[in-house]
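Fold this complex.
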Amino acid sequence: MSAHAPAMDTAPAVRPRHPREVPHALVSGLGMLVLIGAWEGAVHLLHLPGYILPDPAAVVRALWSGIAVAPSSPLGWYIPLWSTFRNAAFGFLIGTLLGLLLGSMMAESRTIERLVMPYAFALQCLPKVAIAPLIVIWFGFGDGSKIAIAALLALFPVMINSFTGLSAVEPERIDLMHSLSATRLETYRLVKLPNAAPYIFAGLDMAVVYALLGTIVAEFLGAQQGMGVVITQAESVTDVAGVFAALIILGALGMALHGIVRALERRVVHWADRGKR
Amino acid sequence: MTAARATPGATQGAAPQPIGVAAPAALIGLRGVGKTYATASGSAVRALSGVDLSIAEGEFVCVVGPSGCGKSTLLRLLAGLDPCEEGTLTLDGRPIAGPSGETGVVFQAANLLPWLTVRENIRLPLRVGGRHAAAGGRIDELLAIAGLVDFGERYPYELSGGMQQRAGICRALVRDPRILLMDEPFGALDALTRERMNTELQRIWQASGKTVLLITHSISEAIFLADRVVVMSARPGRILRDLPVPIPRPRSFDTIVSMPGYAALAREIRALLNAEGDAP
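Structure:
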């Protein structure tokens, strides 16, 4: 979108850098090196055993042993990662759609708002992972319970944010649609929904992380496969390096999903910060 | 007055119209129109009271009045945005029951949708009501009239305030309404841009033959644009005076001040408004 608004981007293409200013990537890279160095040092100087804190090299070996296998190998990251990703993605999709639907219904109807809002708040205050065991009883140990818990966790931020966004539409925009004799659905589709898009994306940003969290929690409670299973199995044989490696993989997955949502957001709501005049 | 549209030249507005007497072929007619609002705190606010006004087809009428005098209320009633519960309000002899395709509204501060390009914003009224007619030609024509040909694919945030409001006028015109209702459309613009926009609007009006009701705070804008200037009182808004503007068209800001009648008219409007003061 940088091709637009040349007149408004007053910042020159090449920012004149203060001589003592250090580039961003260099700072975080150095921080990483210091952290790994301290870790390595602590392990050797304090004689920490590998089942408490493995040294970085052991974690890298564990990471690599899961990468350098055939994608179909049960020893690799690929099968559990795919399983976790798939369940989190399904849960995210279902939770998002339900959240958008509920949020829209609440914004469009005062009756539904009054009906749903108190329960929504009550559920919002409840730590939702506490419901997970109940869902496992209902949905079993298969993919169903993972998807259900991921969906439940993803639902709330999207519901609340879409409700807020749909309710926050400027009255002049509603007047405009009214003056055009627009139907309720047209006003929703052409004005309210795009108007709420920045709010909805903020909700999606949270929902994507929550969906992953929900899937892992469900896998901890019992599953045949998935990253949660990998972690519990590694833990049961005190393979701490394996746990660390799994956490790094999960962190990368979370960041990738977050990045996808952010990239989508930049494309769809590029107007959001500059649209206000 | 009613024949003015056919000859948009020198004779227009020359014959003063008696106050309070409706032209025979009034396109818009208001008789005893009043409006009372309930505020959020529950108290009632009388916004308009006993408004009689008739506007002929093709006429350009400007409404001036102190802040909070119910000018915008009047426009909302005419646009069908608020129901008329007191008096009668007719469009072409039929009561106004709600918004119709006969009126296009130009809002304060353009009110463009920031997620649509200029072209999509102008096309919006055609998307409402299932009209999926390919109106590309019509939109191109409007973009050309408004001098926005090169900006059709831009987003509103990339446009100046004046350009945004020109796009807002195009949007109001895209359904080809007979009446254009404009609520202080140039209030947010700087003085020079405002004069340019007034000149543009005069040109668009003369080219399109629409009936225009424009609400403004600016006396010079009202005199420059209007066939008739309607002066309203402080709240509850009543019509104090309905003044014809006997200045030939096309008018120009370079010469209008020296036109006979301009100074006296401006003085009269200013005196009326000063006597009213601003509503609290």
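The longest strand of chain B covers residues 26-38.
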